[in-house]
UniProtKB/TrEMBL annotation:
Domain (Glycosyl hydrolase family 67 catalytic) ranges: 151-455
Alphabetically ordered keywords of this record: Hydrolase, Signal
Taxonomic lineage of the native organism: Bacteria, Pseudomonadati, Pseudomonadota, Alphaproteobacteria, Sphingomonadales
GO CC annotations, alphabetized: extracellular region
Gene Ontology terms describing biological process: xylan catabolic process
Every Glycosyl hydrolase family 67 C-terminal domain range: 457-680
Protein name from the UniProt record: Alpha-glucuronidase
């Protein structure tokens, strides 16, 4: 009896499950994991065309095969099937053969490719030609990208090649799984289970990178642990390197300069000490024995408490060259220029240039100096770093921050394409843009990846990873073109939805600047975590840790005087640029308070006083965010529910927090300048004391 009841109950349950399974619309969960590689089925004319052409990848002869070409074939087949959207279509009479021709020179050089349709021929073909196999893989991804954007095979004819040799992600991931300045969960690197187990995510990561041309990854934080150079880690690194090799991705490691002492048993890390040199030589040889294409070392030295050559009275060049000798022509030493000293009272914006400029010409050929986009630290807006115009005899690489430490973490929508376009196109003087300076070398982006299903904390933050890769491939691409490509692949190709999404992406970074740090202000964020406004912080031990150090507001005025009457940081720029920026009337108002200290009633080009303009900027920023939320909510029918809701919630947070930035900042400035608000302007709802007391114990980076 009891047995029968149980069987009945199970049967009933089974029926319910079957009914649920049958009645659910067969929908594909859009949790963002597939990034821009969704290859959503085409529709309309594009779909009909692809179906009638039924492109098939022509077989590759056994002798020509390689693991990279196997990936290319697999990607093409997977992508084409997905774009077609249905199971196997009836074979076309004369299907288009996609030919991977990877040993000819299409005139592009290394890693480049050409895409050539010959659809009218008797045997229609689409040829992906390259000089090397990685070029063929890049060409395959390019073909899929073009198709995914809605273009037909016949319209896709292009020749392309990466502009710069090094296109690297820098992960600030610690071996314990915490990601410094990470807002997307834990580290994606599973050091505990490596080398025995390789997570599928490591392959999906390589696919995502290769699809946008990223060709290297520094897998650990610049604030490095020496033990990552020990044999057990070399085995783990080898497993990753082997997995990524087919995708053209080389592995790099952040090396702690004091490693010879920390793990090598020596009592010094002096770069001129023969035992230290020998230690690095042996360590480097050991790594290359396991990983023959190891990319090299990234080093943060004598910066924010990290050890370095200056601990022994040696220069950055002494340190870098010593390691470069160990690496030889097998790889590269990337030496970071992000330095400022706890003992130096010079304007922090000047210190890197002051330390490095005298070393121009002293670095070995296989040393690269990696310079952040601006002279302080990844602020929402900074002028370009003066080192880009001042080190003609040094190989300089640009460091960008993809993760949004200072732009609202993953909570705020801020598409960084326009910010990076701004620095890449900046004129350094002497007829070279920043892009011209770095093109022979490369670009690095501090990654925003994490264990979250959507990789980046929010779907829109995936666009920043994407934009970094595309700009490293081609620094003259416009943010507009990048946003379009990304949106078509990530959300929708329908112009009625794509256009408003692209528009809000393009406005988003400026909105953040306006409600956080308008008119050239910088570094006003909360201590430690860097979240939210804290312009009132003036009492931290080091002067340059304090927002007050940066804004210098008092009763009379606001801004950092970096002209000759102040710190004269402006003199680090080309004289023509310095001359223009020295004049508060001639400088772009977006940089005014970075270089100038002006009275609150300073007259702006708009005719408003500085004070009124500042308030107007905050209001413009807040209004833009309200606009984004309205734009997004009108797109509900165009976006899958899961991603629609996730983004709606983020935008609601951004609306609240943009107001918070505005109100707290205005309340603080008023407490300093005692000025009334311009007429018709909303009063901050609370006093500055209220904002000052807010605490965020859960904020990442605390
Ligand atoms: C700052 C970050 C800090 C990094 C440092 C760096 O706050 O976590 O270690 O840059 O780039 O932006 O080394």
């Amino acid at each position: 009896m009891r047995g029968t009841k149980l069987v009945n109950r199970l049967a009933a349950r089974f029926t319910v499950l079957v009914v649920i399974a049958l009645s659910a619309t067969p929908s594909y969960a859009e949790d963002g994991y597939d990034l821009w590689l969704r290859f959503a089925p085409l529709d309309g004319v594009a779909a009909a065309k692809l179906k009638s052409q039924t492109p098939v990848v022509a077989p590759i002869s056994e002798g020509d095969r390689s693991s990279t070409l196997d990936v290319a074939v697999e990607e093409l087949e997977r992508g084409l099937t997905s774009l077609r959207g249905e199971g196997d279509p009836p074979p076309a009479q004369n299907p288009v053969q996609i030919i991977l021709d990877c040993g000819t020179e299409p005139g592009t050089g290394q890693s480049g490719f050409s895409l050539t349709p010959q659809l009218e021929a008797e045997r229609p073909t689409f040829r992906i030609a390259a000089q090397d196999h990685i070029g063929c893989l890049y060409g395959s991804y390019a073909l899929l990208r073009e198709l995914a954007a809605g273009r037909g095979l016949g319209e896709i004819s292009l020749i392309d090649a990466p502009a710069m040799p090094l296109r690297l992600l820098n992960h600030w991931d610690n071996p314990d799984g915490h990601v410094e300045r990470g807002y997307a969960g834990r580290s994606i690197f599973d050091w505990w289970n490596l080398p025995g187990r390789l997570d599928q995510r490591m392959i999906d990561y390589a696919r995502a990178n290769a699809s946008i041309g990223i060709n290297g990854a520094v897998v650990n934080n610049v604030n490095a642990r020496a033990f990552m150079l020990e044999p057990r880690y070399i085995a783990k690194l080898k497993r990753l390197a082997d997995a990524w090799r087919p995708y053209g991705i080389r592995i790099y490691v952040s090396a702690r300069f004091s490693a010879p002492r920390d793990i090598g048993g020596l009592d010094t890390a002096d770069p001129l000490d023969p035992a230290v040199r020998q230690w690095w030589q042996a360590k480097t040889d050991e790594i290359y024995a396991s990983i023959p294409d190891f990319g090299g070392f990234l080093v943060k030295a004598n910066s924010e408490g990290q050890p370095g050559p200056q601990d022994y009275g040696r220069s950055h060049a002494d340190g870098a060259n010593m390691m470069a000798e160990a690496v030889g022509d097998r790889g590269t030493v990337i030496w970071r220029a992000f330095v400022y000293s706890a003992e130096d009272d010079t304007d922090r914006a000047k210190q890197a240039y002051d330390e490095f400029k005298p070393l121009d010409g002293q670095f070995a050929d296989n040393v690269i100096v990696q310079v952040k986009n601006g002279p302080i630290d990844f602020q929402p807006r900074e002028p370009f770093h003066p080192m880009f115009g001042a080190m003609p005899k040094t190989r300089l690489m640009l460091e960008l921050q993809i993760t949004k430490e200072y732009l609202g973490f993953a909570s705020h929508l801020a598409f960084l394409g326009p910010m990076w376009e701004e620095v890449l196109t900046a004129d350094t003087g002497g007829e070279k843009s920043v892009a011209d300076v770095i093109v022979p070398v490369g670009m690095a982006g501090v990654a925003n990846t994490g264990s979250d299903r959507n990789w980046s904390g929010s779907v829109f933050d995936q666009a920043n990873w994407y934009a970094f890769g595309r700009l490293a491939w081609n620094p003259s691409m416009s943010s507009d073109a990048i946003a379009r490509e990304w949106t078509a692949q990530t959300f929708t190709r329908k112009p009625a939805a794509l256009e408003p999404i692209v528009r809000m992406m393009l406005e988003s970074r400026e909105a953040v600047v306006q409600y956080m740090t308008p008119l050239g202000l910088a570094h006003l964020m909360g201590t430690g975590h860097h979240y939210g406004p804290a312009p009132w912080v003036c009492d931290l031990a080091r002067p340059e840790w304090n927002p007050c150090y940066y804004h210098r507001a008092d009763r009379d005025g606001i801004g950092f005087d970096r002209t000759p009457s102040g710190s004269n940081a402006i003199s680090q720029y080309d004289p023509a640029i310095a001359a223009q920026w020295s004049d508060p009337a001639a400088i772009d108002p977006k940089l005014l308070l970075w270089f100038h200290r002006v009275d609150w009633d300073h007259r702006m080009a708009s005719g408003r006083t500085l004070w009124h303009e500042l308030v107007a900027e905050y209001d413009r920023g807040v209004a833009k965010v309200d606009g984004f939320a309205a734009t997004w909510s009108a797109l509900e029918s165009e976006i899958d529910p899961e991603r629609f809701r996730a983004i709606s919630e983020r935008l609601a947070i951004q609306q609240t927090e943009a107001r918070w930035w505005r109100d707290a900042s205005i309340a603080y400035w008023q407490s300093v300048n005692g000025l009334p608000l311009p007429e018709g302007t909303a009063k901050p709802p609370f006093s500055v004391e209220y904002y000052r007391k807010l605490e965020f114990p859960e904020a990442p980076g605390q």
